[in-house]
Design a protein that fits this description.
Elements lengths: L6 H35 L4 H25 L3 H9 L3 H29 L10 H16 L1 H16 L4 H23 L9 H25 L4 H4 L9 H33 L3 H37 L3 H28 L12 H16 L1 H16 L4 H25 L3 H29 L2
Helix pairs in contact: 1-2, 1-7, 1-8, 1-11, 1-12, 2-4, 2-5, 2-6, 2-10, 2-11, 3-4, 3-6, 3-11, 4-5, 4-6, 5-8, 6-8, 7-8, 10-11, 10-15, 10-16, 11-12, 11-13, 11-14, 12-13, 12-14, 13-16, 14-16, 15-16
Length: about 450
């Protein structure tokens, strides 16, 4: 076994981090829209903040599924790029745009129709009455977001990651400004309260999609992929190939994030204060999770490159480097959660009942940071070698077969309340991390 400080590992650390840090910041940008909404809405009350939590519990499922499906393009692009197959990547660009645009429209329509389902989960009616219109506007943003993701995942497969980061950061700055103007009614804008937040998010995502399209369309590095571009000659086989990777990737995210979203429903049975505290702690934990998912995306590209070259040793070293890096990063995050557990919640809410619960939840979040990091990087590494079916089953069993039942048991049978729900979720994360790491170790030896 090579030393973890050998020249080959150091080379992989450098290449992975150069790919990963822009993706980390870009992924962070997606979740920061919700974090900013949570923080700024918290200034107008606990009930609106609980409404954001309830709406996001459904919206985030759509968000991560859409992003996950777009991930089906990235390892295919990386593999084709390693052999300089420009025609294959041109076809992947076209089909990726088609798939993601249609997906965005379908997800918007379906969830617009079923958003009234929030009335069926025994939540506080005043929370539901605010959550449904907020959710309906947020869903509009799925269409530009899916279009943005189609271009983003294509160029990341070609190892161009910095521009998506810049565009996402710009979009978030726009979102913050529009939140300030539209929630509180500054500079002549109407004071829209909670609804101002969702319209701000929608406008910023439209701007993000337009900026990404213009970059990919006019950049000279991508001209070769636009030659002869048209919407004719659609390949059923290529669509199936992309979806065979993308749909399981989307489901993997849905099973994990869905567990936390369903936890919002269970916490709503406790109190709006617990629901708001959960949203605060989840918003903080989501920051490190999305940064970890950026490293996961980089691992997928690096592993995909080596897989395209049929280099088994390269596949394992690329993945091992990513695992080591995520353990280091998440260890630092865990320490930060514990040290600043009483400070971080105050950025989101001034209610001592809410911040006290959130502080406790951040301690639990600190303990599952390592598991969360390992499982998301494991999924990225496995995606790089086109292994998605078994990992999808693993996430389903870990979160819905173990995590949620244990959450219900701890919360309502042992009367641990919201703390019990988070303990159960952390057990699911740990199980997923162990099984996915074992899966990669097994499959990569068979290459």
């Amino acid at each position: 076994m090579q030393s973890l400080l050998s020249s080959e590992y150091k080379t992989n650390y450098r290449k992975t981090i150069l790919l990963a840090y822009p993706v980390m910041l870009s992924q962070l940008g997606h979740i920061m829209v919700g974090v900013v909404d949570t923080a700024m809405v918290g200034q107008i009350g606990t009930i609106p903040q609980a409404a954001v939590a309830l709406a996001n519990s459904l919206y985030i499922l759509v968000l991560v599924f859409g992003i996950g499906v777009s991930y089906g393009v990235t390892p295919l692009v990386a593999a084709a790029d390693s052999s300089k197959n420009y025609s294959e990547n041109a076809a992947l660009l076209k089909h990726g745009i088609i798939i993601n645009t249609i997906l965005g429209i379908i997800l918007f329509i379906v969830l617009l129709l079923i958003s009234p389902v929030l009335n069926l989960f025994n939540q506080k009616q005043e929370v539901v009455d605010m959550a449904i219109p907020f959710l309906n506007v947020m869903l509009l943003g799925m269409i530009p977001l899916c279009i943005f993701s189609a271009f983003k995942q294509f160029i990341e497969g070609l190892s161009y990651t910095a521009v998506a980061m810049i565009i996402t950061i710009g979009s978030n700055l726009l979102n913050i400004l529009l939140n300030y103007l539209m929630i509180f009614g500054h500079w002549g804008f109407p004071e829209m309260g909670l609804m101002g937040s969702c319209w701000a998010s929608f406008i910023s995502r439209v701007a993000m999609a337009i900026a990404m399209f213009l970059y990919v369309y006019y950049n000279r590095h991508f001209k070769v992929y636009w030659k002869g571009f048209n919407l004719k000659n659609i390949s059923k086989e290529l669509i199936q190939k992309i979806l065979a990777l993308g749909v399981p990737s989307g489901l993997q995210w849905v099973f994990e994030v869905g567990a936390f979203s369903f936890a919002v429903i269970m916490i709503g049975w406790i109190s709006p204060e617990a629901q708001a505290a959960h949203q605060i702690a989840l918003s903080v934990a989501a920051i490190t999770y999305m940064m970890a998912s950026g490293l996961s995306a980089a691992a997928s590209v690096r592993v995909g490159n080596q897989f395209g070259l049929k280099n088994r040793a390269g596949v394992r070293i690329a993945a091992s480097s990513a695992f080591i890096m995520i353990l280091a990063f998440m260890s630092c995050s865990a320490i930060g959660f514990i040290v600043f557990r009483d400070v971080l919640p105050t950025f989101f809410n001034n209610d001592s009942a809410v911040t006290g619960i959130a502080s406790t939840l951040l301690i639990i979040a600190a303990f599952f940071q390592l598991s969360d990091g390992v499982q998301v990087v494991g999924l990225g590494a496995l995606r790089g070698i086109n292994d998605v079916t078994i990992p999808t089953i693993v996430t389903l069993v870990a979160y819905w077969g173990i995590g949620l039942p244990m959450s219900y048991w701890f919360a309502f049978k042992l009367n641990y309340g919201v703390v019990g729900i988070w303990i159960g979720l952390s057990l699911g994360l740990t199980m997923a991390a162990v099984l996915l790491f074992m899966r990669f170790n097994y499959v990569s030896k068979k290459i």
